[in-house]
Specification:
By secondary structure, the chain is an alpha+beta fold. The chain contains 14 helices and 19 strands. α2 runs parallel beside α3.
Length: 419
């Protein structure tokens, strides 16, 4: 051992020196400080640390019982060895029961050094154990905080005894009261019927040991009877863990954690619904829809665009749109223009183009086109008819009169000439 610090409670200088000689004779390197009363002992304990206390049983106005009480009040775990020349066996037993570590008679100090070494070793072992326990508690506290913050539930299944332990969070996840018994049967009852076969297969694969016993899966849990008024829909959970095997390779424990991912699943379902709805609208509309990237290359075209322009998606996706149908209007709404089909025939469209943004960044353009070819043909026919009519009027061949029931309101020159 390294140098030992010994606090000696002794009023006799000669006895104190004798005790030190016995310790040094045994090969111990000691630093000794002697005190004789309660005040000096208290002050010495505050200065510490001390490896051991060697105390005479009876001092003037002070003694081992009072010294032991002071030591206990200080909270220090220091070996306390009583050395006396007058102590009786019954008194010695009483001191041991009060917390003294050993007692020796001054006429038999041969056991002093071994006793000091033994008690110091045990005290240091206790200190190490306390430190380990403290670190374990701190680790458990940190783990508990992390589990609480992340809302992770944990489980531990001891296979030989078929006993299952759920953490408080896991109990909350499954709607089980803190004092209710949990079991594998309860888990299987709460497991959604459509998920039972799949989860069973995953479990069987994990316990065969081929994948180091690791497993992970998602499943749905059915609300228990006590949750009938609060929730009726199954909740989704993500679970992962490991199977621990004994020396014979048989499954011993199954430990793991679970997290409630219901909100995530519902958000995914809502997103898929919106995606399906958008896809259905794009597929069922009669308007042509093109999506291009920032370079003008087609990334998507709907079925209407394929029908109207005669191109398939495979022919246009990845290619420049203007190289195939002409140049659509950019960032304009209801822009009328003439483009071309795959066979080269012209097509009149009313187009609208809007930037496509994702997370604040423009990644392309969405172009919507409506085929207005028939409307354009009708408009041209109307204009031609009006022109022919105007020519007849201007040539004086056709008379036109506008009148109400009582009189003529307006007439052209040809009608007037007839009157």
């Amino acid at each position: 051992m390294s140098q030992l610090k010994i606090l000696q409670i002794e009023d006799s200088e000669s006895d104190a020196a004798l005790i030190v000689r016995f310790l040094e004779k045994a090969g111990l390197d000691v630093h000794v400080e002697r005190v004789e009363d309660a005040a000096a002992m208290t002050e010495a304990l505050q200065r510490g640390p001390w490896d051991a206390i060697v105390c005479d049983y009876q001092l003037p106005g002070f003694g081992a019982p009072e010294a032991l009480a002071i030591l206990h009040a200080s909270g220090h775990d220091i070996p306390f060895i009583v050395v006396s020349g007058t102590i009786g066996e019954d008194v010695a037993v009483g001191m041991m029961r009060s917390g003294a570590n050993d007692y020796l008679m001054k006429d038999n100090l041969a056991r002093l050094a071994p006793a000091v070494e033994r008690e110091i070793r045990e005290a240091r072992a206790r200190a190490g154990h306390r430190e380990t326990e403290l670190q374990l508690r701190e680790s458990q506290d940190r783990m508990a905080l992390a589990v609480h913050a992340t809302q992770l539930g944990t489980f531990d299944y001891y296979v030989p005894a078929a006993t299952l332990v759920w953490s408080d969070v896991t109990r909350q996840q499954f709607g089980v009261e803190p004092d209710d018994e949990v079991s594998p049967a309860l888990f299987w009852r709460r497991l959604h019927p459509e998920d039972r076969w799949r989860v069973r297969q995953i479990g069987l694969k994990a316990i065969d040991g081929k994948d180091a016993g690791d497993f992970s899966f998602e499943f749905r849990a059915i609300p228990g009877p006590e949750a009938a008024q609060r929730e009726t829909e199954p909740r989704w959970f993500a679970t992962w863990g490991r199977v621990l095997f004994d020396e014979a390779g048989k499954p011993l424990r199954i430990i793991g954690a679970s997290r409630d991912i219901t909100d995530k699943k519902r958000a995914e379902e809502a997103f898929r619904y919106q995606l399906d709805l958008t896809r259905a609208i794009a597929h069922q509309t009669s308007d042509s829809i093109f999506v291009t990237d920032r370079n003008g290359c087609v990334t998507y075209m709907n079925p209407a665009a394929e029908r109207v322009f005669g191109f398939t998606s495979a022919e246009l996706v990845g290619n420049l749109l203007h190289d195939h149908i002409g140049t659509p209007g950019e960032t304009a709404r209801d822009h009328e223009q003439q483009l071309f089909r795959k066979d080269g025939t012209p097509i009149h469209v009313s187009s609208s183009s809007v930037p496509l943004s994702l997370k604040g960044e423009t990644i392309g353009v969405v172009i919507t086109m409506r085929d207005i070819t028939e409307r354009k043909i009708a408009e041209r026919a109307l204009r031609e008819s009006e022109a022919r009519f105007r020519r007849l009027i201007d040539a004086g061949i056709l008379g036109i009169t506008i009148a109400d029931r009582e009189r003529i309101l307006e007439a052209n020159e040809y009608v007037i000439s007839l009157l």
